[in-house]
From TrEMBL:
N-terminal signal peptide: none
Residue ranges annotated for the MmgE/PrpD C-terminal domain, each copy included: 275-443
InterPro entries documented for this protein: MmgE/PrpD_sf, MmgE/PrpD_sf_1, MmgE/PrpD_sf_2, MmgE_PrpD, MmgE_PrpD_C, MmgE_PrpD_N
Any GO MF annotation of the entry: lyase activity
MmgE/PrpD N-terminal domain: residues covered: 3-246
Entry's family note: Belongs to the PrpD family.
Name of the protein this chain belongs to: MmgE/PrpD family protein
PANTHER family documented for this protein: 2-METHYLCITRATE DEHYDRATASE (PTHR16943:SF8), 2-METHYLCITRATE DEHYDRATASE-RELATED (PTHR16943)
Domain of life of the native organism: Bacteria
Length: 462
């Protein structure tokens, strides 16, 4: 399995990619670099940026939101953390990871350092997502594996995403990719314990650290480090370790299924909300019911959400002191979506409404209940069944199985995606610079000889 994935990574060419995968890769690029822009201004990003800038090193790769460059692994780590701490990036539900923040930032950092062009960057981005998401999905193929995994956080696959993206740009051979995957397997980590109330500031660092470790894995493999040949599938390997020794044959099959035929990079959720992916279906359903039936806020008696056990137990924080906690609160997310009536809830909306009295009042009327039938499909799907009851006895109910922004089923409307980009870029870029960034990535990235124009465009406006 390790060897097969390494062979896929080493052999994949830009000409092998369908045009639809290339188009999605450009979208992921815009989505992540703009998320990192707003993320770089959040309190969670301050410590990461400060520590890495103090450490210094070879100034070879851009830091989004900063004026100095860092070594490529450090830059990838900082930028991935900035994108992820917004909780407004993307998600691959089957694999329980957010691959875009690793793929884009690792590919960008390494491409800058080696002078790679647009095609090589996009190829690396796609390759990282394809391999990393399959490894992530291998951990999530049975309910037993989900239960066993409950002690680890959701970014274990990031290390592999970044290692493959970096490895493509560093020109790793098949044997070197075998080593890089093994090195990455020893580095992947994360703990859900740090999420127990209230969520601490370390959770997005799982994404940043694992991304940086993935770039280092590729660099170490290039320098000659080895890591055996069965790090993923071995009896004491990555999959057995992170499924508590309960891995079924289907786990190993999933890691290889669809290579060259099924493009996972076309199947991500591009988030419309700064909220856990587990809550998006419920937010969409609740907002639709209230707006469609023109229910006034004062008329809402309860909003009952039947959902998976994890959401009911872990994602219903009601004491919301800051943005960091708000992204893990289903009641806050539903109240915000209803009050604003907007299909987007980026970090700026959260911050603007943290102390809003109407939000707090509506939050108190949101109730989440574990539904055993919904919990059975946890990980494979994240449906929600929502009922709105009014003070005068009306009752409206809707079930949402697929959230808005889930590709290819419910893609974002182009104007919604562009507005998301503009909202997230606003803390760093003037409107005219955002125009140029969108146009350059959409029209010129694929044929670009280097990524220096992109580096200039994502630098803060003077």
């Amino acid at each position: 399995m390790t060897r097969e994935l390494a062979a896929f990574a080493a052999g994949l060419r830009f000409e092998d990619l369908p045009s639809s995968a290339v188009a999605m890769a450009r979208m992921h690029t815009l989505n992540i670099v703009t998320a990192a822009m707003t993320g770089s201004t959040l309190p969670a990003a301050a410590s990461v940026l400060t520590v890495h800038l103090r450490a210094g090193g070879v100034p070879e790769s851009s830091v989004i939101g900063g004026e100095r460059r860092l070594p490529r692994a450090a830059a990838a780590a900082v930028n991935a953390h900035s994108a992820y701490c917004t909780m407004n990036d993307d998600s691959f539900m089957e694999g329980d990871l957010h691959p875009g923040h690793s793929a884009v930032t690792a590919a960008l950092a390494v491409a800058e350092s080696v002078g790679a062009g647009g095609k090589d960057f996009l190829l690396a981005l796609v390759a990282g997502i394809e391999v990393g998401c399959r490894i992530g999905a291998s951990l999530c193929q049975t309910q037993e594996s989900h239960k066993a995994r409950a002690g680890w956080h959701c970014n274990l696959g990031d290390t592999f995403v970044a290692a493959v993206a970096a490895g493509k740009l560093l020109g790793l051979s098949e044997d070197q990719f075998v080593a890089a995957l093994g090195i990455a397997a020893t580095a992947a980590a994360g703990l859900n314990e740090v999420m127990n109330p209230p969520p601490s500031l370390v959770w997005p660092w799982d994404g940043g650290r694992n991304t940086g470790q993935g770039v280092l894995a590729a660099e170490l493999a290039l320098a000659g480090m080895t890591a055996g040949t069965t790090a993923l599938e071995g009896h004491q390997g990555f999959i057995e370790m992170f499924t508590g020794g309960r891995a079924e044959p289907v786990a190993f099959d999933r890691a290889l299924r669809g290579l060259h035929a099924e493009w996972i990079s076309e199947q991500l959720l591009i988030k419309t909300r700064s909220a856990s992916v587990m809550t998006h279906s419920a937010i969409d359903a609740a907002q639709h019911l209230v707006l469609h039936h023109q229910v006034a806020l004062a008329e809402i008696e309860t909003i009952e959400v039947r959902t998976n056990r994890w959401t009911a137990e872990k994602l219903c924080h009601r004491d919301i002191p800051d943005f960091n906690v708000s992204v893990f609160s289903l009641p806050f997310a539903i109240a915000l979506a209803i009050l604003t009536g907007d299909r987007l809830s980026p970090p700026s909306s959260h911050q603007a409404y943290l102390d809003n009295v109407e939000i707090r009042s509506l939050m108190a009327r949101v109730v989440a209940i574990e539904d055993p039938e919904i919990d059975k499909v946890f990980g494979f799907s994240l449906p929600a069944d929502v009922t709105v009851r009014t003070t005068d006895g009306r009752r409206y109910r809707a079930r949402e199985d697929i959230p808005y922004g889930q590709y290819p089923h419910k893609p974002l409307d182009p104007e919604v995606f562009e507005r998301k980009l503009r909202l997230n870029a606003a803390p760093l870029l003037r409107a005219d610079r955002v125009d140029r960034l969108i146009d350059w990535v959409s029209d010129e990235l694929t044929s670009a000889r280097t990524l220096e124009p992109l580096a200039r465009l994502i630098a803060p406006s003077s």
